[in-house]
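Field reference: sequence -> structure
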Amino acid sequence: MNERLAAGVEAKALMRRIMAEGGFATVLRKGDEERGSLLLVIAEKGRHFTCLERQLQVSGAYEWSETGPGSESEMAEISQFLEKKRRNDPDLWLIELDIANGKRFVAEMTEFP
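Structure field:
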């Protein structure tokens, strides 16, 4: 079985990383500290860019993948997506990250070893 950081630890580490790089990070919804799943709402200069979700793969490894509405989506569509995810997973962490270079961050997070 592959090990992974507790959700609360990983959430706080991601937020510190973004703030250290001059970005903004906030918890929109706090999930279960140990077993919660993570959904990152990525913005670039205040505009929605994409969402990343940490998901368990068939191999047993956890990987980040893009999910949900894209950068051209309306706020109502984004809100509906987040509300649906929240309803379906009571342990879900929703974290908003506003990053200077969203494309680079997404590429780093979704790159497979």
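Note: The first strand starts at residue 24 and ends at 29.
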